[in-house]
Each structure stands twice: as structure tokens, then as C-alpha cells.
Amino acid sequence: MRKLADCLRKFENVCCAIGLIATTAMEFIQVFNRYWIQAEIVWINDTALFIFVFYMFFALVIATRDNGHIAVDVLADKIAGGSPVRRLGYGLFLRLVGLAVMIVALPPAWRFAARAYKYPQYATLVRWFNTSWMMEGLFVTFCMIVLHMAILVALDADKLRLSLRDPAGANGRES
Fold first, then answer.
1. In this predicted model, what pLDDT tens digit does every residue of 4-14 receive, in sequence order?
2. What does the angle CA 154 – CA 15 – CA 139 come to, to the nearest 5 degrees?
3. What pTM value is reported for the model?
4. 7-to-4, 10, 46, 151 alpha-carbon distances in Å
């Protein structure tokens, strides 16, 4: 399972890095063409936008995987007080609620992606470019987010289980 997770992690990182590099390079070329050569290439902006959307999908996946969201800790502090075990329980509860919401949203997301697959839409300036892949890609990354959330729920549940056995060690434990 760890090898699969490592491969998935590398794939996500590579997709995000390629998207960032490609978007940056295309926008640099566009600025160079527009302001120094005075010859704008119109389709570069559309293509750069499509690549940007693609790598932003993977940035969402990576943020979920690395627990990189911004949390508001006021309610957690109120509920958990100074107890690391209660804080872990509260965090697990929030993650379970988030996972449940994502799972409930999977069927509508699937219908959205299936409709995009059935009825392709093409770009304005790059007429041959099928933009429906963005809706399909969103569904794939949505599924990857659900997978990462499920893994994080399992890790949080394990941390909570271990913390209930040894409440004194709950602060310093890493998974």
C-alpha cells in the first residue's frame, strides 16, 4: 500500500510541477511576444489557462494529501481545551464530516463528468481543443481527494486509538 501511495504522491507532484512550469513558460513567451516583438500569439493564453486549471486541480489534491488547509482553531480550542486526546477526537470528527460530504457529492460529480464526456465542448480560440477534459479531470481529482481524505481519517483514527491508550504521549506522536 505504501508503494502505491508513494507512486500516487510522485504522480501528483509531477503533474503539478509540469503544469506550473508550462504555464509560467507560456505566459513568459506571451509577454515577450506581446511587448518586445509586438506579435501576440492568441492561442497561447487559452492554452496556458487550460494548463493552469489542470495543475490547480492537482494542487487541491496535494493540499488535501498534505493536510495543507487553513484551519480555524477557535472552536477546537473551546471544545478540546488543553486535552490533546479531545483535540484529536474533534479533528477526526471534522475529517469524517468532510469525507461524508465529499462522498455524498460523488454521484453528482460523476453525472457532471459523464455529461462532459458525452457532449464535448471546444475552446474559443483553440477550436480543436476539447475543454470537456476539465470537467472530467475535476472528477478524477475529486476522487483522489476522497482517497486522501479516507487515508487521513484512518491515520487520525489510529492516532486517537493510540492516544486513548497513552494520553500523556498524544502531543509528541507522529504517524
1. 888 888 998 89
2. 60
3. 0.64
4. 5, 5, 31, 15
